[in-house]
Amino acid sequence: MHLLTARQAFPELEGLPDDDPLVKNRRKQAKGINFAIQYGAGKAKVQTMAETPEIGAALYKANKTAFQGLVAYGNMLRKFYNRHGYVENIYGRKYKLNMYTHRAANYAVQGSGADLLKQKIAATHEYLLDKKSRLIHNIHDELQFEIHKSELYVIKELAKIMDDTGNLFIVPILSDIETTTTS
Predict the structure, then answer these.
(1) What is the reported pLDDT for 109?
(2) Is residue 58 part of a domain?
(3) Which of 3, 10, 110, 114 is deepest in the core (most CB within 10 A)?
């Protein structure tokens, strides 16, 4: 989502790989704007959040153009909440929001992501049980592994586990793998 927003807002990213430093920087900017919009920020607020008002306007337009369905989804969840007093994530977990109906979509999306991450923690742990490599941290939406030097092959296998969401989502959710030789 954030990468698509960045690519739509910044034509200069065309042809650059996703791991290019400029692409990563623009994606990070788009992420902040996407969340702000999801929490209800309007164009004027977004323009004050970005490096320049022009960049803010471009990101706002890219978000609204690329994710028209997301706006409809948010509206549908708010209506559901107003009728039933809760929203559900993709796994069926219910969230009661008290008076904050503007958070309905965020609870459903972030809650789904949190439950998906819990599944991936369990699956990667299970995969690594008979190996020297280990899952050592989870921070927000990131898992960090310590890979034994004799088991570098597990990186690709862990990526497969992370990317496999079955039929839960229409759009694939792909992991971003980064490696380092430092601790």
Answers:
(1) 83
(2) yes
(3) 10
